[in-house]
Design a protein that fits this description.
Shape: elongated
Low-confidence stretches: none
Strand content: 5-15%
Number of helices: 12
Number of strands: 5
CATH architecture of the largest domain: 3-Layer(aba) Sandwich
Number of domains: 2
Mean pLDDT: 86
Helix content: 40-55%
Largest sheet: 5 strands, parallel
CATH superfamily of the largest domain: P-loop containing nucleotide triphosphate hydrolases
Order of helices and strands: HEHHEHEHEHEHHHHHH
CATH topology of the largest domain: Rossmann fold
Distance between the termini: 45 Å
Strand order of the largest sheet: 2-3-4-1-5
Length: 322
């Protein structure tokens, strides 16, 4: 489902008075997931006759996350967890009536980062939600949500096109790693892993600087730990896209081995370099994809990046092309 299709569905629900109390939006929390959430919230808070107008106080309040009836929670600590104390404070905001006399919306960014105790605390609110209250849970890892929470929400899965791709310089650096990671055996594999780890470290540092700049520009009194948490949330999303780039590169190599149509390639413009990603056999190609999928799972479980990447790259190319 595209953003436009999802919004059209939600708009019909608003008009018909059938809007659910809670939705899980399965997409990048700072990509199309947030785009859809903002459009829906502007529709609810807009004060113009043509909703959403995008220019009234309600719409601007959503765009700048300053609307008094919009309450947002996200991981703020380096542990990347939404604590139970933070969740209780978030829930308390819905005890009182809305400022504008209409809807109150709770936006949970990276909902999969809820600690088990905070998810259970939120579950109580979902079981008996206040009137005219809407909860939007944004996540790109819906499998990590508590089944009891997921069962009490309507689920909207957005299709591709919402990827938060790395910034231009980082994208180019990752592509350079992909072009050369399969050509020099063990030494090349270790070198490629080290270079990718360096790119990712630099990217993380740049995101922290951006969050500090945003806090100054918006005159927000935010502590360093919160800034690190916000930057960490953004980094995790971009890192996921970097890892998916590697996975797609390996998939393209397997497609070339099988003689598939080149229109199916994710990186058709890199055909010359993709030759180094072509496996010796179909089984080897599948194994490479499994190795990378396992590495992605390990990093999502907070395994050390450099160690995980080094082991994965050695497994991919360190023994077969020495």
């Amino acid at each position: 489902m595209t953003v436009d299709q999802a919004y059209a569905y939600l708009e019909q629900s608003v008009v018909a008075g059938r809007l659910a109390q809670a939705y899980v939006i399965e997409a990048s929390p700072r990509g199309n997931g947030l785009v859809l959430a903002n459009r829906l919230m502007q529709r609810l808070f807009c004060t113009d006759t043509e909703k959403p107008c995008g220019v009234c106080n309600g719409c601007r309040g959503v765009a700048h996350a300053t609307h008094p009836d919009l309450h947002r929670i996200e991981p703020e600590k380096k542990s990347r967890v939404i604590s139970v104390d933070a969740m209780r404070a978030f829930q308390h905001a819905f005890v009182t009536t809305s400022f504008s006399g209409g809807w109150k919306v709770g936006l949970i960014m990276n909902a999969d980062c809820c600690h088990a105790s905070s998810a259970n605390a939120f579950l109580k609110t979902l079981e008996e939600p206040p009137e005219q209250t809407l909860f939007l849970l944004l996540t790109d890892q819906v499998q990590r949500l508590l089944p009891t929470v997921l069962s009490r929400c309507q689920r909207i899965s957005l299709a591709g096109g919402d990827a938060v791709l790395p910034p231009g310089d980082a994208y180019d650096a990752v592509m350079d790693v992909l072009r050369h990671m399969g050509g020099m055996g063990r030494i090349g594999a270790m070198s490629s892993a080290a270079e990718l780890a360096r790119v990712m470290k630099s990217l993380k540092e740049s995101l922290v600087k951006e969050e500090k700049t945003l806090a100054r520009e918006e005159e927000q009194d935010i502590d360093a730990e919160t800034i690190d948490g916000r930057a960490g949330a953004r980094y995790r999303e971009v890192r996921q896209q970097i890892l998916m780039m590697i996975l797609c590169w390996l998939r393209d190599g397997l497609l070339l081995f099988t003689g598939s149509d080149q229109d199916l390639l994710r990186f058709p413009e890199e055909l010359e370099y993709l030759r180094t990603a072509v496996p010796a056999s179909y089984q080897e190609g599948l194994q490479r994809i499994r190795i990378m999928e396992a590495a992605i799972t390990q990093m999502n479980r907070n395994m050390p990046e450099s160690l995980t990447l080094g082991h994965a790259f050695l497994s991919l190319y360190g023994t077969s092309r020495s």
